[in-house]
Amino acid sequence: MRRAVCPGSFDPVTNGHLDIVGRAATLFDEVVVAVGVNASKSRLFTPGERTAMLEEVTSAFPNVRVAVFEGLIVDFCREIGAVAIVKGLRGAGDYEYELPMAQMNSHLTDVETVFLPGAVGNAFVSSSLIKEVAGLGGDVRGLVPDAVHERLVARLAERSG
Length: 161
Ligand code: PNS
Hints:
- Helix content is 45%, strand content 19%.
- The protein is of the alpha/beta class.
- The chain is globular, with a radius of gyration of 15 Å.
- The chain binds 4'-phosphopantetheine.
């Protein structure tokens, strides 16, 4: 059984994330989508909410499950017996950001990092931009799964009301 981890904040999950998770699921026997908990960062959705959305939108992939992790991603990989961390790269900026983390993780363990090129159509899609644009009334439908869009709009309305 070759298991991989797709880590991230997923605040919220986007179609870009979903593309990478789905493709990772064709490369590995099992993919664990790992929701990072970093108490110092303020998030729109709680870890439980992010996990529930991920479970819903990955339910079509039989070999994908979702978990929350705290601490080092390599320790989580070791705990669950994952051999690889899979990350999507939208462009050179992502590579610059991800490479030192991949090298640090490789220094810490023998867990391999696998980069998948993001789909061209998702190159501009990030959770932070989605939140900013939706928060200012922009239409982000089609960039996040429909179920996520509903919850995003509802949460932003709660926050502004
Ligand atoms: O979606 P994000 O915010 O880019 O996800 C970042 C995440 C959670 C994948 C990254 O911050 C992470 O791996 N955090 C766990 C802590 C850790 O292992 N840090 C050292 C990385 S070299």
